[in-house]
Amino acid sequence: MKSLPRLRMAHLPTPIEELPRLSAELGGPRLLVKRDDQTGLAFGGNKTRKLEYLLAEAQARDAKTVITGGAIQSNHCRQTAAAAAKIGLDCILVLGGDQPAEPSGNLLLDLLFGAEIVWTQMRERDQTLQAAFESAEKAGRKPYLVPYGGSNPVGAAAYAYAIQELIDQDVRPDWVVFPSSSAGTQAGMVAGAHLAGFSGKILGISVDEPEHILQTRVAALASETAALLGQPTTFKPDQILVNADYTGEGYGIMNSQDREAVHIFARFEGMLLDPVYTGRAAGGMIDLIRKGFFSKDETVLFWHTGGPPGLLADKYRDVIDS
After folding, report:
1. Catalytic entry in 74, 181, 182, 206
2. Is the pTM of this model over 0.85?
3. Residue 312's closest CA among 15, 140, 112, 91?
4. Which tens digit of pLDDT belongs to each residue from 110-120?
5. In terms of CB atoms within 10 Å, which end of the chain has fewer, N or C?
6. Residue 112, Cβ neighbours under 10 Å: how many?
7. Which domains are seen in the chain, by residue range?
C-alpha cells in the first residue's frame, strides 16, 4: 500500500487481548479484543488513527483552524479537539442538539481542549457546518474541514494500515466485529483486507443506519480508499458485511442489549465500553454468539473503537441502574 503523509500521535500498535471469562460465560467462540480505546490521545479511540493522516493534510495546506461536527457526546469531536490542541491549531466543533446546562462527558473534554462550540439542531447540522467553514474562511482563519467521523479516503486509509498492523501482530481471526456508522473505519478495513491479503470476515454492526445504506456507503468509500492507496479496486455493496438488527430506537438511545453489553464487559473483563458505539456493537456480537452465528471453533476479534468518556455524560447516568 502507498504510504500517506502522517503526524504520529497514536500509541501503536494497540494491544490485542484474550477475553477468556467473557468467552466462557457466553459458551461461544474464542474472543479477542483489539484495544483502539488505548490509542492514547484524549482517552483514545479509533479517530486518533484517522486524525494522524487528516491533520497531516491540514498542515500541508497551511491550515490554522480545524472544523468538524458531530453529536453532543461525539468521540470524534473530542479526539479532533485534542489533536488540534496538540499541534497548535484552533478547533471549531459544530454540535447537533440542545446545549446542556452543564457540560459532561465528551463535551466537558471538548471545552477543556479549547474548542469553540457552535450549537445547532441535528437537522441543520450540515448547513451550519458549511456556514461555520465559510465564516472562518472569510475571517482569514485558514480552515480545514474534517468530515463527520473522519470518514473520507484519507481518514479511512488509517484503517487499511490498521489491518496490516493486525497481520503484523500475527493474529488472523476468522471474524473482525466492530461498530459501523459513518463508514470510514469499515471502509478502511475492507480496503486494507483486500490489499494486504487478510481473509477474515469484516463485520460491521450498524449503530444507526439501515443495512443497504451502510453497505453502499462503505463500498463506495472502500473503492476510493483503495485507489488513494495506489491499487484501484471496485467494491460492491453485496461484498460488505453489515448487520443492522441492533439499531434499536436510533443513534445514542441506549437499549437493553447495549446496557447488558456495557455491564458484561465491565464485570467479566474489567473493560469499559461506550454507550453509543462499542456498547451497541458488543451487544450485537453477544446476541449473535448466543444465537450460534459464529462457530465455537472460530476466533472472533472485537475491535474496540473507544468512547468510555461517554459513560460519564449526564445523559447516560442510568446505565448503572440496568
Report:
1. 74
2. yes
3. 112
4. 999 999 999 99
5. C
6. 14
7. 16-46+151-321 (3.40.50.1100), 47-149 (3.40.50.1100)
